[in-house]
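Sugar/nucleoside kinase (Ribokinase family), pasting as requested.
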Amino acid sequence: MGNAYDVLVLGGAGVDTIVYVPELPLPYADSYMIRPGIETRAGQTGDFVALGLSALGLSTHHLDMIGDDPSGDLVRAFHRDRGIGFTEVPLPGGTKRAVNLVGPDGRRLSLYDDSRSRESDRLPEDVVRSLASVSRHAHVSLTYPCAFALPQLQEAGLSISTDLHDWDGENPYHEPFAYGADLVFVSTTALADTEKTMRRILERGRAEAVIATAGAEGAYLLTADGLVHIPVVEPRKPVVDSNGAGDAFASGFLFGRLTGEDLRRCALYGSVAGAYACTVPATGCDAIDRAGLLAEVAELTGDPVSARGVGRGK
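Structure tokens follow.
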């Protein structure tokens, strides 16, 4: 019996309020006049990974906890309008929210509302096991309930990926994710020693590859064969916002992995998808599609490319 889903995304559903500011850091002032305005829209890390995977033609299902509130309605509409399957579990504290300050150069400062989470928050084990049993791969967001779902995913025999985002390499909260996934993404932003942290993940956990994204410096890919640098891909349009670029990179990489490409090609897919995301305004929700990704990769490499393992989606 085949799997219903290429990827099960766990966690990372929520709502962001986007505020464009004249500069970052933002100097103190009594008030600022903001243009193009302030907008609230659904789309946090899990939402964007699910969007990116779905746009690339992989059958994707998202599982997370959200509230019975207007923010939750935005999250529901985000998935419904894009045809992305979504299983919701009630979140007593209400849907997760954040405020993103976005500067003119596209840099972002996120303020996360930490009052939504409770110690008792859990994704039901039977729901996790049921969805895992019909999925090829699981991408696990760095949210509290997901840490308790990792053992069920491992028992189900799925391949697992996670994104540690701006981990400093020391905070113990991240370690179950870092050491419990087969593909580990991390930003270099807060790492004092990027290679040392990457090697520790590879040595202590189950990862076959660790990928560190470094913005304008490109990315780094570490496997048992060694560390390689992945050159940056220049966006085809002006950079307007970095929000979601890491999620897009992960989506592109996973698309390559699930269609049978080697890890370097996967990293190139991720770089192209991440570059595209930087051209999308923070108030928008868009992702590169399969045809666009493969066409740009073919142009960059001079090689015709095709996805060998066609997903169950588009």
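Note for the archive: Confidence is low (pLDDT under 50) at residues 309-314.
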